[in-house]
Design goal:
By secondary structure, this protein is an alpha+beta fold. It has helices at residues 2-17, 36-55, 59-64, 83-94, 167-174; strands spanning 66-73, 79-81, 102-112, 117-127, 140-151, 154-164. Helices cover 31% and strands 28% of the residues. A hairpin with a 5-residue loop joins strand 1 and strand 2 (79-81). The N and C termini lie far apart (100 Å).
Length: 198
Amino acid sequence: MHRALATAALPLLVLACAPAAPPPAAPAALTAAPDAREQQAQGEQLAAAFCDAWNRHDMDAFAALQAEDADFVNIFGMWWHGRAEIRKNHVGIHETVFRQSRLTSVRVETRFVTPEVAVVRWAWELTGVLTPDGQPAPDMQGILVHVARREGSRLQIVTTQNTSATADAFRAVRGMDSSGKPAQVSLAGPPAARPQNR
């Protein structure tokens, strides 16, 4: 009987005495984020590519800046999902009210929140806008915010939020010093009473 118990217990004893399995391998180290200068350069390259595609009215190049599953909220709150939908809706406006428009970036700030993901925020001005009946419309200004994923030495847009800015707010953005401190701007009075020239 003792021999039978010992025989039955032998496999458990072998398992108990076996060396422990090695711990799982640590995940490969994350790629280091670019240094501050390279971060800023990548954000500026993204804004420049966005402006270039816009100004050539090349919506294929514009769409290529977006991830396949990107989303885009425009200044009116229209929310488009996916590269194809973003492209389609920009094609429409570039055939009409924006067909003569020119977009310029005024100020770009880039901050990597992980080694692979950046927030790129930039102020823009848009001239040459037309009304739906083809008449010149007032120039526009605002701020675009992209969340972008690093793809090699460039950034690809994952999501975009566009915000229109009043003339006074935009002057404050333009007047920021390198620390991000805004210039002193009076926002008193109704919008109609404020000067609209930049």
